[in-house]
């Protein structure tokens, strides 16, 4: 197990963690100031400053990338199918232009939530078929761009409105079907989404064995969780056994960055330097 | 698939659905008035009127039972272990005295939440071992009382504080280990907790094949869900494909009652007759 105590040389901060406090350029500067190794930026933040300027600022600050957020939201009907396809291709191209190691895919839930305006449906199995079809199509484009796709299973509480891919096993099964023996479609393991899963450790081992572990995200699960979307905990403040999960991830061969991704009204209300300093401190002591 | 349109002859109402509006005796009377076939009462409601009086009122009203709520909350440390054991044995005895077909088991999460005062822990796997040990011990008592136990997997969003048994497969695996080939430990399938599960249909078929389908609970999943605990939807108001799940349950051989269990601040604020009439109408039209 890697020793993280010396400093944040493997720490990445997902820029949504401080999205209420600052724009992308300021976030980049602040992360560099705290010695943080990398970021994972969001498309809207990149768009706000322009792709080239964002790429240059990241490079100038000496930051790496742990991913690019995000593609996906595949379930759609009517004209939204084509719009989703085009949007996802642009996401791949942007990730490649930024030099990101992967594009994070959030699958999308039922079509009326994934792509508003689509025909409402309760057909969760149908949505999963749309997801698989959508990834299959995007994969061809991603291969041309030499940009791996990282499918991120989301917590089951988001199955309806955010992602109908809800377990690591489900994501890996999909990857096996779409990218057999390959390295173009992997998974992102986020403790918030997966910590509860009885098959988590088996899934991590499988993902490692099959070279599909493309990203590892940390935060914490608070009790009580007051908001299903924006009440994630800072590492160490909740009940997730972070050390045990990281050990499993590293035992499975993962040697990449560790990305802190915290959607939290509490932390969005704190000064950016306090949030980043806390991320670094917790990364060193409890992750 | 059974035709429910004629009337609520297979409908059970979990008494928590109207717990804010009335006490048990009034709920019994109201359910009988609406032609509802059965109830599933809670221990605190029974205790408030006394076990014998509750049993007599249920019988006098001509109501069946679909279950008794609830035993479980196994993870504990120190003196709380024995207290949990004794409490669960009493729950079995009460269920038997009432003539309930099964005792619903909610497994409990981490020990500090399952049995407050227990030593705090982040060891989810350890909690699961405590659950399995607790069920094993309770099973001996339940067999003597000839009272089947129905382990209910709860939604993963409750893994920390309510139940660390979170998928049907996990519950069935546990049942296979503790009650191989037996009929003393089964499962309760609740659409709210399981609708998202990629393995739901496989799990239902397996549960049926192994004669472990002891209870079937319905409500709905709302989007957005405003509260993790008390914002369940009335059947038909959410995104759950109720017909598809019931078809699977009945194809798996289930011939029992269909229990409406709705924890909802919205429905608790409605008059009891409106809630029960709506349950009956939705049972006939969308369940």
Structure in a nutshell:
The structure is a homodimer of 287-residue chains. The first copy, chain A, has 12 helices and 9 strands.
SSE layout and pairings?
2 copies of one chain form a homodimer.
Chain A lengths: L10 E4 L9 H10 L4 E3 L2 H7 L1 H10 L3 E2 L2 E5 L6 H20 L4 E4 L4 H4 L9 H21 L4 E3 L16 H11 L6 E6 H4 L5 H10 L3 E6 L23 H10 L6 E3 L4 H4 L3 H14 L2
Parallel strand pairs in A: 1-2, 1-9, 2-3, 4-5, 5-6, 6-7, 7-8, 8-9
Structure explained in plain terms:
Two copies of one chain form a homodimer. Chain A has 287 residues and is α/β, with parallel strands linked by helices. Chain A has one domain: Divalent-metal-dependent TIM barrel enzymes (TIM Barrel, Alpha-Beta Barrel). Chain A has twelve helices and nine strands. In chain A, strands 3-2-1-9-8-7-6-5-4 form a nine-stranded parallel sheet. In chain A, helix 4 crosses helix 6 and helix 9 packs parallel to helix 10. Chain A is globular and about 50 Å long. The termini of chain A are close together. The mean pLDDT of chain A is 98. The interface between A and B is medium-sized, with 30 and 30 residues.
Which CATH class of chain A applies here?
A: Alpha Beta
Identify the strand order in the major beta sheet of chain A: 3-2-1-9-8-7-6-5-4
Number of strands of chain A: 9
Proportion in helices of chain A = 40-55%
Strand content of chain A: 5-15%
Distance, first to last CA of chain A = 11 Å
The biggest beta sheet of chain A is recorded as:
9 strands, parallel
* CATH architecture name of chain A: Alpha-Beta Barrel
Oligomer: homodimer
Order of helices and strands of chain A: EHEHHEEHEHHEHEHHEHEHH
CATH level 4 superfamily of chain A: Divalent-metal-dependent TIM barrel enzymes
Number of helices of chain A: 12
The greatest interface between two protein chains, and residues involved on each side, is: A-B, 30 and 30 residues
């Amino acid at each position: 197990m890697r020793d993280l105590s010396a400093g944040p040389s493997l720490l990445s901060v997902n820029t949504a963690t401080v999205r209420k406090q600052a724009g992308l350029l300021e976030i980049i500067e602040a992360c560099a100031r705290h010695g943080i190794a990398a970021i994972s930026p969001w498309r809207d933040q990149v768009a706000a400053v322009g792709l080239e300027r964002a790429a240059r600022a990241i490079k100038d600050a000496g930051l790496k990338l742990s991913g690019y957020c995000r593609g996906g939201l595949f379930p759609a009907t009517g004209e939204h199918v084509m719009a989703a396809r085009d949007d996802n291709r642009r996401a791949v191209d942007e990730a490649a232009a930024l030099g990101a190691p992967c594009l994070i895919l959030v699958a999308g839930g039922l079509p009326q939530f994934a792509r508003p305006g689509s025909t409402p449906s309760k057909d969760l199995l149908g949505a999963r078929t749309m997801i698989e079809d959508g990834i299959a199509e995007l994969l061809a484009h991603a291969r041309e761009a030499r940009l791996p796709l990282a499918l991120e299973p989301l917590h089951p509480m988001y199955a309806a409105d955010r992602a109908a891919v809800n377990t690591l096993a489900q994501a890996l099964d999909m990857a096996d079907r779409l990218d057999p023996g390959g390295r173009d479609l992997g998974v992102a393991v986020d403790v918030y989404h997966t910590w509860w899963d009885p098959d988590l450790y088996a899934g991590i081992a499988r993902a490692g064995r099959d070279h599909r572990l493309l990203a590892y995200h940390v935060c914490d699960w608070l009790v009580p969780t007051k908001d299903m979307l924006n009440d994630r905990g800072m590492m160490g403040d909740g009940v997730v056994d972070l050390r045990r999960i990281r050990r499993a991830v590293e035992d499975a061969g993962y040697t990449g960055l560790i990305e802190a991704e915290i959607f939290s009204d509490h932390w969005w209300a704190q000064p950016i330097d306090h949030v980043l300093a806390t991320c670094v401190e917790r990364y060193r002591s409890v992750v």
